[in-house]
């Protein structure tokens, strides 16, 4: 079997030495992968349990058109989400266009003029800057008279409790906590740490709404932030919980009142959750959710593999090869533009879709340096599928995530290494005896 693998990898441009290097790294990770599988098994059963409890039936997969009254599949799916996240209610819709939209919806529907939003974990995800009005933007919270305050994490990544306490004031209505580090260098927050932060905040202001930006974090642990005190968790269906199959969508799960507010904002006051045809998306939403624990595990394995491949070659990687993981993002720092470009080209060349194209850096609107992106996805822009991107500027880091199957993730990473070696960016004899 091994000879056969070496052969097909060779057909795909991977030298036997690099293949063997990948195997040796993989062999060192088996215990780690077993832990990932154990979390995935737990979450798989959790999803099945929620589906059975809510009597998901064939009729739920069909969907509605027009107003979408009495959409059995939509209503059942929202109860399934509420059970998985252990919340009173949920809003799971194809009309929520992306993660940013889901987060904006949660904020704009639960805040009123004169209220204040607090981020106690530093700067939020880039796209939220315009939602909040940190960067001036049409329709931002700021334009509606909603103010914003931020407390950064301390240099060692811990919470600045003293300043969080000071920042909480009579105007504070909502707190936003981003679970994933996103494209920053701070650590990703575990569900346990999020719970500690929320307990501290609620100890001072029990009435404040604690929202968690759950993007990239779903199913990486056995608990979700809503089980440790979050009033609202929010995310994108073209990341973890869509399992690679959801073609669009976002979700909010949380307290009844928070979800009600969001529904009235998404559709209209007076109408709320009662409308919103699910069209033809339900089957993919259900099946994607069913696959999500396993797909998330595959993405985690790819990230752990990448960390170990490159750490072992002396590159700086975040998280490192051994740390526990609470999201699916892996950063690797190459220190030169060629490394970032070669990595992204390797990911692209491993893709099932658009595998023949060569990504190049370009001046993307909103960025202050050229950005290179690699994605060959079945769902456009889906970052639960194997993808990578990096701004071409110091320290020349690339951010890598996804992989619907572990085998694809592994192939993608090996392909990046092959590219880096071919371009002379990594000079090493990959003979096994030299490892
Ligand atoms: C992806 C992401 C978002 C935004 O989601 P989009 O679907 O890209 O709009 C927000 N927050 C975090 C942490 C994310 O990873």
From TrEMBL:
It comes from Parablautia intestinalis. InterPro entries: Met_g_lyase_put, PyrdxlP-dep_Trfase, PyrdxlP-dep_Trfase_major. It holds the Pfam family Met_gamma_lyase. This is Methionine gamma-lyase family protein.
């Amino acid at each position: 079997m091994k000879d056969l693998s070496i052969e097909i990898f060779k057909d795909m441009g991977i030298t036997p030495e690099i293949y063997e290097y990948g195997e040796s790294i993989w062999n060192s990770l088996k215990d780690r992968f077993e832990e990932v599988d154990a979390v995935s098994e737990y979450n798989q059963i959790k999803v099945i349990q929620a589906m059975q409890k809510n009597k998901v039936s064939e009729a739920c997969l069909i969907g509605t058109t027009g107003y979408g009254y009495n959409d059995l599949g939509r209503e059942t799916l929202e109860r399934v989400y509420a059970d998985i996240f252990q919340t009173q209610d949920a809003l799971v819709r194809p009309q929520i266009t992306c993660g940013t939209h889901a987060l904006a919806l949660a904020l704009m529907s639960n805040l009123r003029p004169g209220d204040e939003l607090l981020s106690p974990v530093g700067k939020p995800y880039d796209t939220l800057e315009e939602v909040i009005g940190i960067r001036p933007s049409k329709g931002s919270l700021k334009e509606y008279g909603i103010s914003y305050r931020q407390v950064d994490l301390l240099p060692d990544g811990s919470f600045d409790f003293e300043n969080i306490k000071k920042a909480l004031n009579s105007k504070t209505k909502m707190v936003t906590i981003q679970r994933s580090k996103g494209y920053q260098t701070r650590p990703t927050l575990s569900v346990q740490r999020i719970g500690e932060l929320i307990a501290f905040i609620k100890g001072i202001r029990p009435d404040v709404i604690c929202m968690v930006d759950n993007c990239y974090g779903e199913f990486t642990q056995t608990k979700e932030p809503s089980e440790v005190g979050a009033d609202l968790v929010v995310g994108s269906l073209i990341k973890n919980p869509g399992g690679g199959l959801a073609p669009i969508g976002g979700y909010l799960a949380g307290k009844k009142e928070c979800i009600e507010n969001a529904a009235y904002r998404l559709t209209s006051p007076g109408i709320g959750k009662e409308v919103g045809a699910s069209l033809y998306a339900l089957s993919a939403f259900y099946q994607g959710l069913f696959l999500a624990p396993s797909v998330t595990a595959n993405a985690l394995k790819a990230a752990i593999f990448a960390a170990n491949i490159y750490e072992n070659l002396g590159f700086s990687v975040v998280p490192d090869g051994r740390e526990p993981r609470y999201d699916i993002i892996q950063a690797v720092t190459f220190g030169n533009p060629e490394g970032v470009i070669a990595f992204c080209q390797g990911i692209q060349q491993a893709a099932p879709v658009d595998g023949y194209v060569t990504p190049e850096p370009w001046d993307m609107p909103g960025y202050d340096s050229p950005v290179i992106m690699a994605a060959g996805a079945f769902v456009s822009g889906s970052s639960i599928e194997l993808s990578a991107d990096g701004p071409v500027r110091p320290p020349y880091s690339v951010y890598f995530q996804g992989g619907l199957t572990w085998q694809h993730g592994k192939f993608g990473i090996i392909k990046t290494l092959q590219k880096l070696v071919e371009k002379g960016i990594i000079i090493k004899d990959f003979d096994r005896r030299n490892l």
